[in-house]
Design goal:
The protein has 1 helix and 10 strands; from the N terminus they run αββββββββββ. The protein is mostly beta strands and about 160 residues long. The protein has a single domain, classed as Jelly Rolls (Sandwich), CATH 2.60.120.
């Protein structure tokens, strides 16, 4: 599926990474392996601090995922069930303890979506999807912790002529 990110280990190399053209879930080996958001996306526009619908939305934050609690999305994420061509989201994220606690990530409509949705496991990652989907996270375990915070930043895109 799509492009596989290559590893880079310095901030200037991070800007050389490109965002995959295909929507989906991607894992990186470090923060430097996560591409920055594109400044332009053909056929779309983005307004800082706004969601798909032009409404204010906090674009940076964290969510806590707990062992055994299933999938968790960003509170009040503005996804819908209709008009799935009305927008695109992009998200960059990392575990609070990426070397100790792994996170499963997925692009799906809700936590109730059957297990057929693609998932990837890691300590760093990025995803993109339509306005009918949302980024979701689940504790994957590994270390001594039973919960972990996931830090993220978002970018929303709206169709434009």
């Amino acid at each position: 599926m799509g492009l596989v990110p290559f590893q880079q280990h310095n901030a200037s190399a991070q800007s050389a990474l490109t965002w995959p053209r295909q929507a989906g879930v991607y894992i990186a080996s470090s923060s430097e392996g996560i591409p920055t958001f594109p400044q332009h996306l053909s056929g779309y526009r983005s307004e800082n601090g706004k969601d798909f619908w032009g409404k204010p939305f906090v674009l940076r934050g964290s969510i806590r995922v707990l062992e055994g609690n299933g999938w968790k999305g960003i509170p009040n994420f503005p996804n819908t069930m209709n008009g799935c061509s009305a927008g695109i989201f992009m998200i960059r994220w990392r575990s609070a303890y990426p070397n100790a606690d792994l996170i499963q990530s997925s692009v799906r409509h809700s936590a109730a979506v059957p297990s057929g949705a693609e998932t990837k496991t890691g300590g760093f990652g990025y995803m993109s999807g339509t306005n009918c989907e949302q980024p979701m996270f689940r504790f994957a375990g590994r270390g001594k912790h039973t919960l972990v915070d996931v830090y993220y930043e978002l970018k929303f895109w709206q169709p434009a002529p």
